[in-house]
TrEMBL record:
Organism of provenance: Helicobacter ganmani
Pfam families assigned to the protein according to its UniProt record, in alphabetical order: ResIII
Domain Helicase/UvrB N-terminal: 45-150
InterPro entries with a match to the protein in the record: Helicase/UvrB_N (IPR006935), P-loop_NTPase (IPR027417)
Protein name: Helicase/UvrB N-terminal domain-containing protein
Top-level lineage group: Bacteria
Gene Ontology MF, one: DNA binding
Length: 156
């Protein structure tokens, strides 16, 4: 591996801190995951294992943040982010390749969050979706329409 690629890999690994924090804790959420349906999306789309893993990580991160923010904050500090404040740990992102289904993952996450809000597992909060351009907005609308034709609980 070249020096440039090694440096890029090291930089990438530093940026995936939340993934590192979640890895040893993800099994603690199996009972929560068991109450949710991850795989189905529409008649023609079923989520892939990597998409389901992304959803589980997002739900685990949100659960950690809402249930034990001090513990989550401490985990960030233990990963070497001494300059981070508690107010800065309320973010996460999906880092996935173009065409890997981020839109589908985000729509499914919204549906799962509504389920968790209903179960009172997570506090109900408004959800705002920001997209970079009209093309992506239309893609989201089409995926939501497709999701709604297949699911009994509709997204609006």
């Amino acid at each position: 591996m070249s020096k440039t690629k090694s440096a890029q890999k090291a930089t990438l690994e530093k940026k995936l801190i939340l993934k590192e924090i979640l890895a040893p804790k993800i099994q603690d959420f199996e009972s929560l995951f068991a109450s949710l349906e991850f795989g189905s999306f529409s008649h023609s789309i079923s989520l892939q294992e990597y998409q389901i893993a992304a959803l589980k990580s997002a739900i685990a991160a949100l659960s950690l943040y809402t249930q034990s923010p001090d513990s989550l904050y401490q985990s960030y500090l233990e990963c070497g982010l001494e300059g981070i404040t508690k107010e800065q740990i309320n973010t996460a992102s999906f880092w996935m390749a173009t065409g890997s289904g981020k839109s589908i993952v985000m729509i499914k996450l919204i549906a799962l969050l509504h389920d968790l809000f209903g179960l009172k597992t997570l506090p109900a909060k408004p959800i705002m979706l920001l997209v970079p351009n009209d093309k992506i907005l239309e893609q989201f609308k089409a995926h939501i329409k497709e999701y709604n034709t297949y699911q009994s609980k509709k997204l609006h």
